[in-house]
Design brief:
With about 300 residues, this protein is α/β, with parallel strands linked by helices. Helices cover about 35% and strands about 15% of the residues. It contains twelve helices and twelve strands. The protein is elongated. The chain has two domains: about 120 residues, Rossmann fold, CATH 3.40.50; about 180 residues, NAD(P)-binding Rossmann-like Domain (Rossmann fold, 3-Layer(aba) Sandwich). Helix 3 links the parallel strand 3 and strand 4. The strands form two sheets. It has a seven-stranded parallel sheet with strand order 8-7-6-9-10-11-12, with helices on both faces. A five-stranded parallel sheet has the order 2-1-3-4-5. It binds NADP nicotinamide-adenine-dinucleotide phosphate (NAP). The site of NADP nicotinamide-adenine-dinucleotide phosphate has 28 residues, from helix 8.
Length: about 300
């Protein structure tokens, strides 16, 4: 009996591991659920979810015996948690195993943007270094005044790395945390006023949409830089683009965007923006750990054991 639906673009290795562990039916996209024969849909009690279109009440309604949606990723903003809870469906995610990779990438974005590493590399590769001499001066980063919006699992790892860079650390979250003297700001605008670089490590979803608002961006000012590894939705992207184009914001390092991968083409024309294709957790080792945790949650569900990382 088929019990698990694997939705999304799994690698060959991940697909094979799912097939070895479960009676598993693969589907490329959410919208294909409706086309499955009813007896098959009725057998599904678990979904291994790696989709992008969204998994909401409509998808759940097609799977009358669904009890678990095991998400591949810590961010579960594409799953309707309220609809799941209302139907007695538990959602799990893959927290912690990706913290290091995502924090590493945030630091790399900061370094690449501030030290103009893409432009400096192009300077050397094009022969201009040999012909015209040294690359132009850029910005000292160690010791900077930095702010973190969202001091959760990933935000904390970013902060720990920035501490090693001798930075003055400020942060905003819904509640003050126990920290080694980092300064808490209850108001994100006040945080932006106090720092030159803002790292965004919030959860995505409706509650944090546009959280880094036009006002926060204005408070950061023309020397300010935004690094975002959370979700495109957490920033007022139009306001950020306006500020970047007008020189009212010095730059940005971004791994996440609205409407990715069809991102706003205005980004491509901005030399002060470092763009990454949402690859924060994209190392071989971390993706393997995420896939394993997803399978472990499914296995726990099917054997009646406690789920490892439930979110509702
Ligand atoms: P986490 O531990 O839950 O931390 C999230 C932070 O967001 C917390 O500080 C929390 O504040 C804050 N927050 C949550 N809801 C909020 C609200 N309504 N208003 C204001 N602040 C709110 O999550 P995490 O594991 O660090 O992951 C953070 C996010 O990173 C994920 O949700 C995902 O979207 C993103 N991510 C991106 C990549 C990538 O490839 N770029 C990879 C993994 C994750 P409190 O501390 O006050 O609760």
């Amino acid at each position: 009996m088929t019990k698990v639906l694997a939705i999304g673009a799994y690698t060959e290795e991940e697909g094979a591991a799912l097939a070895a562990a479960f009676e598993c039916h693969p589907l490329a996209e959410e919208r294909e659920i409706a086309n499955l024969p009813h007896p098959l849909r009725a057998e599904i009690t678990g979904v291994a979810y790696k989709g992008h279109q969204g998994f909401g009440a409509a998808e759940m309604a097609h799977l009358p015996n669904l009890r678990l949606v095991a998400n591949y990723g810590v961010g579960y903003d594409s799953i309707d948690i309220e609809a799941a809870s209302a139907r007695g469906i538990t959602v799990t995610n893959t927290p912690d195993v990706l913290n290091d990779d995502v924090a590493d990438l945030a630091i790399a974005l900061w370094l690449m943007q501030g030290r103009e590493m893409e432009q400096a590399s192009a300077w050397a590769r094009s022969g201009r270094w040999a012909q015209e001499g040294e690359y132009r001066r850029n910005r000292k980063l160690s010791g900077a005044r930095v702010g973190i919006v969202g001091l959760g699992r990933i935000g904390r790892e970013i902060a720990d790395r920035l501490a090693a860079f001798k930075c003055e650390l400020h942060y905003h979250a819904r509640s003050e945390k126990e920290t080694p003297g980092w300064r808490y700001h209850a108001d994100p605008v006040a945080l932006a006023e106090a720092v030159d670089v803002l790292f965004i490590a919030l959860v995505g979803g409706p509650a944090t949409e546009g959280y880094v608002s036009k006002e926060v961006i204005a408070a950061l000012g023309p020397r300010g830089v935004i690094i975002n590894i959370s979700r495109g939705s957490t920033i007022d992207e139009a306001a950020m683009l306006d500020a970047l184009e007008a020189g009212e914001l010095a730059g940005a390092g971004l791994d996440v965007f609205l409407n990715e991968p069809q991102i706003d083409p205005r980004f491509y024309a901005l030399p002060n923006v470092v763009i990454q294709p949402h690859q924060g957790s994209g190392s071989v080792e971390t993706r393997a750990a995420m896939a394993r945790l997803q399978r472990d949650n499914l296995a726990a569900h099917l054997s009646g054991a406690a789920l490892l990382t439930p979110v509702n």
